Amino acid sequence: MMPLKIALAGIGKIARDQHVPALMASPEWDLAATVSRHGTVDGVESFDDFDAMLQARPDISVVSLCMPPVPRFDYARAAIEAGRHVMLEKPPGATLSECHALDALARKAGVSIYATWHSREAAMVATAKAWLAGKRLTSLVVTWKEDVRKWHPGQTWIWEAGGLGVFDPGINALSIVTALLAEPIRVASSELLIPENCDTPIAANLTFTHPHGAHVSAEFDFRKEGDQFWNIAIETEQGNLVLSEGGASLSIDGVKQSAAPGANALHGEYPRLYANMAALVRAGGIDMDLSPLALVADAFLLGRRVAVEPFVE
Ligand code: NAP
């Protein structure tokens, strides 16, 4: 099969760390152009204007958007209106309304759109989901604590309205939780710790309502130095599970698990996302699961704001 030609827009940290290597390694994809005001990729035609790329390269049928959430909608709409399939970094937009609008535009234009959730593709998430199926949940605790200075240096957009603050990583945990649980949870309470000089929270504590009354909570913190935690601990009436390292490690009843045969046929989250996108485009499908973003939006709607000391990078 001919590789699909793709343009990558927003050449920053995640594009360089993950998207470019995943595309370069895949026989399904041909990275045919980049669009960025500052970034380029060696050997790939580069544009600094998105509309110019769409006009100059009608042969490129897919675009992958890696810029922060607030500016992403205009790029996605332009791509769809130009008849291109669209892959969205997480979160798929800055608001639920704009994500619904993109979904509707894509359906009208007859193109594919994919709201990616890279953490759902972490090595042990599928194994955890299979183990959990049919078991009765009693408790689920998310602990997502990382050092923002280490992982997000210079990313001022995270602290501006629409940048999500600690929910930028926290939504990854919620993307795993919403994939694991058979039934939807709802935000019951939300405490948002917001530095006096920022628009977005540096930490958040959430509790959720679960249909069977299981205790579900999440603690997100960007101020963690030393050991970093990206853990989901689950208790059921039939045993316990801990997903750690953002879904890369799993233990069940205290015993470390290895990935099921075939589960790692494509090593890494981003190769799997691009395999999903290729399948979606070839099938003419749409995948816009907005449930992680809905929980984050609800956390902001119900959030009790607590002012904390200013954040200085
Ligand atoms: P980043 O490095 O700060 O930004 C990515 C690129 O977006 C920038 O290099 C910039 O390129 C472009 N950009 C920034 N502001 C823009 C604007 N107003 N209009 C148009 N383009 C703009 O951020 P990142 O870490 O790559 O994150 C980007 C997205 O990927 C976020 O949604 C994030 O949640 C997601 N993500 C990040 C990570 C991670 O580890 N960093 C992991 C998974 C997912 P130019 O200035 O050259 O145009």
Give an overview of the whole structure.
The model has no long low-confidence stretch (mean pLDDT 96). By secondary structure, this protein is α/β, with parallel strands linked by helices. Helices cover 32% and strands 27% of the residues. The chain has helices at residues 13-25, 50-56, 69-81, 96-109, 125-132, 148-151, 167-180, 269-283, 291-302; strands at residues 4-9, 29-35, 45-47, 62-65, 85-88, 113-115, 137-145, 186-195, 203-209, 215-221, 229-236, 239-244, 249-252, 255-256, 303-308. The protein folds into two domains: 4-115, 3-Layer(aba) Sandwich (Rossmann fold), CATH 3.40.50.720; 120-259 and 296-308, Dihydrodipicolinate Reductase, domain 2 (2-Layer Sandwich). The chain starts with a strand and ends in a 5-residue tail after the last strand. Helix 3 runs parallel beside helix 4. It is built from nine helices and 15 strands. The chain has a nine-stranded mixed beta sheet with strand order 14-13-12-11-7-10-9-8-15. The chain binds NADP nicotinamide-adenine-dinucleotide phosphate (NAP). The site of NADP nicotinamide-adenine-dinucleotide phosphate has 21 residues, from helix 1 and helix 3.
CATH superfamily descriptor of the largest domain: Dihydrodipicolinate Reductase, domain 2
Bound ligands, named by name, code or SMILES: NADP nicotinamide-adenine-dinucleotide phosphate
Q: Number of DSSP helices?
A: 9
**Using DSSP, what is the number of strands?**
15
**What is the CATH first-level class name of the largest domain?**
Alpha Beta
The name of the CATH architecture of the largest domain is 2-Layer Sandwich
State the strand order across the main sheet: 14-13-12-11-7-10-9-8-15
How big is the Rg?
Answer: 20 Å
Distance N to C terminus: 48 Å
Proportion of residues in helical segments: 25-40%
- What's the domain count? 2
Oligomer state of the chains in this structure: single chain
Q: Name the overall outline.
A: globular
Counting helices, strands and paired strands, the structural category is: alpha/beta
Low-confidence stretches: none
If you consult CATH, what is the topology of the largest domain? Answer: Dihydrodipicolinate Reductase, domain 2
What's the mean pLDDT score? 96
- Largest sheet properties: 9 strands, mixed
Secondary-structure element order, N to C: EHEEHEHEHEHEHHEEEEEEEHHE
| Strand residue content | 25-35%
